[in-house]
Amino acid sequence: MIGADDIPVIPRGVRMQFDRVRERWVLLAPERTVALDEIGVAILSEIDGQRSFGQITEGLAAKYAAPPEEIAADSRGFLGALIDRRFLEVRQ
Amino acid sequence: MTIQPPIAMLAELTHRCPLSCPYCSNPVELARKDSELDTATWADLFRQAADLGVLQLHLSGGEPVTRRDLVDLVVAAREAGLYTNLITSGIGLTEKRLHDLDAAGLDHIQLSLQGTDAEMADRIGGYRGGFARKMDVARWIGEIGFPLTLNAVLHRQNLHQLPRAIEMAVEMGARRIEVATVQFHGWALLSRDALMPTREQAREADAIVAEARARLKGTLVIDYVPADYHSDYPKKCMGGWGSTGLNVAPDGLVLPCHAAQTIPGLVFDRVQDKPLRAIWYEGSAFNAYRGTDWMPEPCASCERKNVDFGGCRCQAMALVGDAAATDPTCIRSPHHAALQARADAFAAGDAAFTARAAAG
């Protein structure tokens, strides 16, 4: 499970792209495509390979005026699923 | 029925290949080199595909690296905005060419595995020294940092190597392994007796995959195509006919799947004659088994009809002579019991197989 100090990193071969035909954002990964909702786009857009998971979720909580623990729980579930599929990595 | 745009396109750049695997997915009637689409036609097709909604492009073959313009094709695919995947045996790739593909923007490599040692791999692939060269290629892929998927095609003669194949994927740094039990179409159908796994092997593979998935969670993703002759439900072939993907053969024929040419009566269009959009939305072959309206019973009233779409049309054709029949690997097919008995008989068959022929 991703912790507050972990730094999420989008690895080589995974990228966000706007799907201009279906008019939505997608995450493109090896032989797989994940359709993203607004929340997914918001979380992934914050990942820069520098900031920790805790910093990212605090930033999102401030930006969307939402409870930090709620944002962290949602983000942890979303990113955890990507980690399990090897679409996301974490550095300690 | 609303027709959705395709997500994936498999571009079979050539049918030429240094290997001669007996389960090759190419049709038994191979396209000749002089019939292959040229660079500009492929590049135009990649743009058409992206405009149509394709996001994932698989550059395949035959062996796609036998195309001298492969690097140019990768450049064209990336310029079109496609996620670009190379499906290769590795044979013919040099370290320099891999660096050129890296510079061209290749996103991912899927490397095939015929066996986990030279003796097995070179016998199945029919190419002496192939395994050693593949291991070099795997190392270069890792050094450059390409994301890697290992694709192990398994059958009666190499299923005992599954645990080692999974270990090798981890050692190579692959993020994913496809554990694909051989599917019986085209070439593989000619060697069914030699390749059919036993029921015991199929169940053992199920257990090995389940154990490895739990143990390697977060390290290695395992995609598994089980032995459908020994299963209760058919595979969700192509995610539904004409629903998500299309194949383009080396000569420009656009197919709903690898084996669609084995279904008599289907008429296929060529990219040289019609826009890809028209072929996808209006082509008679794509509309033949789209959705669920074509289904007879027991599929028509089955609650799984939107789960597996009646299974594989080509398999229904090959096994019961009717492409619209329920895939007989389904427990609800009237032919299911007979098929399972036949599968056991095939699995007791002779081990000599027919190697794939060379493309002219």
TrEMBL record, chain A:
The keyword Heme does not apply. GO terms for molecular function: quinone binding. Keywords: PQQ biosynthesis. The keyword Flavoprotein does not apply. GO terms for biological process: pyrroloquinoline quinone biosynthetic process. Pathway: Cofactor biosynthesis; pyrroloquinoline quinone biosynthesis. Pfam families: PqqD. It comes from the Bacteria. Monomer. Interacts with PqqE. This is Pyrroloquinoline quinone biosynthesis protein D. It comes from Rhodovulum euryhalinum.
UniProtKB/TrEMBL annotation, chain B:
It catalyses: [PQQ precursor protein] + S-adenosyl-L-methionine = E-Y cross-linked-[PQQ precursor protein] + 5'-deoxyadenosine + L-methionine + H(+). GO terms for biological process: molybdopterin cofactor biosynthetic process; pyrroloquinoline quinone biosynthetic process. Residues 3-220 form the Radical SAM core domain. Keywords: 4Fe-4S, Iron, Iron-sulfur, Metal-binding, Oxidoreductase, PQQ biosynthesis, S-adenosyl-L-methionine. Coiled coil: none annotated. Belongs to the radical SAM superfamily. PqqE family. Binds 1 [4Fe-4S] cluster. The cluster is coordinated with 3 cysteines and an exchangeable S-adenosyl-L-methionine. This is PqqA peptide cyclase. Interacts with PqqD. The interaction is necessary for activity of PqqE. It is an enzyme of class 1 (oxidoreductase). GO terms for molecular function: 4 iron, 4 sulfur cluster binding; cyclase activity; iron ion binding; oxidoreductase activity; S-adenosyl-L-methionine binding. Its cofactor is [4Fe-4S] cluster. [4Fe-4S] cluster binds at residues 17, 21, 24. The keyword Cytoplasm does not apply. SMART domains: Elp3. CDD domains: Radical_SAM (cd01335), SPASM_PqqE (cd21119). Pathway: Cofactor biosynthesis; pyrroloquinoline quinone biosynthesis. It comes from the Bacteria. Its EC number is 1.21.98.4. Catalyzes the cross-linking of a glutamate residue and a tyrosine residue in the PqqA protein as part of the biosynthesis of pyrroloquinoline quinone (PQQ).
